[in-house]
Amino acid sequence: MTVAEAQREVRSVYLGGSIGQLVSGAIWLFSAVLGTWGGARLGIIVLVLGGMFIFPITQLLLRMAGRPWALRPENPLGRLAMQVAFMVPLTLPVVGAAALHNVNWFYPACMMIVGAHYLPFIFLYGMWQYGVLASALLGGGLSLGLWVPGRFTPGGWLGGAALLLFGFAAWRIHQGEASREIS
User: What is the full DSSP assignment across 119-169?
Assistant: First the structure.
């Protein structure tokens, strides 16, 4: 299997990553809602625990749609995907340290960790657009942490919106690629 074939399978199975981004964006926005009206602790718990279910929910939605939900075993990018997936939980202690220093840094720190986690997706999916998402989250997290350090939820709202918008964009990109393959 060539790299291009492996990337094509990743894009095909996961619909360009659109479903995962939509699930992630919804969890971020739900966390922001609860963080805004229920308090910081509730917002943090929802994002941390909800984040653990992004991939299983994505797979469930793909299965419910009658689609393939996993890469073939011979696809070497499956191992990269698993390694990339563990980047976020393994770096949560950094987010925790930032939030212990200033709870308002929770979402900006999460944005930066998640943004950095999307950089390998450029290769994994063979989509430069993941660089745009990574840059938006990294730049947004840094900007909010530096210039809006006294507010808790703007990063939750901004991160959720960025992920949802990217999810819809990735869906459109996937649809365009799928229609070209059919033609």
Answer: TTHHHHHT-THHHHHHHHHHHHHHHHHHH-TT-SSHHHHHHHHHHHHHHHH
E strands, the chain, in order: none
Number of domains, the chain: 1
What distance in Å separates the CA atoms of residue 89 and residue 159, rounded to the nearest whole number? 17
Q: For residue 27, give both structure tokens.
A: 């969890």
The proportion of the chain whose per-residue pLDDT surpasses 70, expressed as a percent, equals: 99
Kindly report the number of other CB atoms within 10 A of residue 73's CB atom: 7
Structural domain boundaries, residue 18 = 3-182
pTM to 2 decimals?
Answer: 0.94
Mean local confidence (pLDDT), 174-183? 81
- Determine the pLDDT at residue 181: 75
Q: What phi and psi, each to the nearest 5 degrees, are found at residue 74? A: -80, -5
The span from the CA of 176 to the CA of 76, in Å, is: 25
For residue 178, the one-letter residue type is: A
Q: How far apart are CA 116 and CA 20, in angstroms?
A: 16
In the chain, the amino acid numbered 90 is: L
- The whole-angstrom separation of Cα 85 and Cα 98 is 21
Structure tokens at 111: 């944005």
